[in-house]
Amino acid sequence: MNVHILQHVPFEGIGSMEHWLRARSANISSTRFFEPWTLPDVSSMDLIIAMGGPMSVNDEAELPWLVAEKEFIRAAIQQGVPVLGICLGAQLIASALGACVYAGRQREIGWFDITAVPNTGHTFHFPPATTVFHWHGETFDLPAGAVHLARSAACEHQAFQIGANVIGLQFHLETSPASADAIITHCRNELIEDTFVQSEATLRSMAPAAYARINALMGDVLDYLTLPGLNRGRRALMTPALPETTAG
Question: Which of 12, 108, 138, 174 is catalytic?
Answer without folding.
Answer: 174
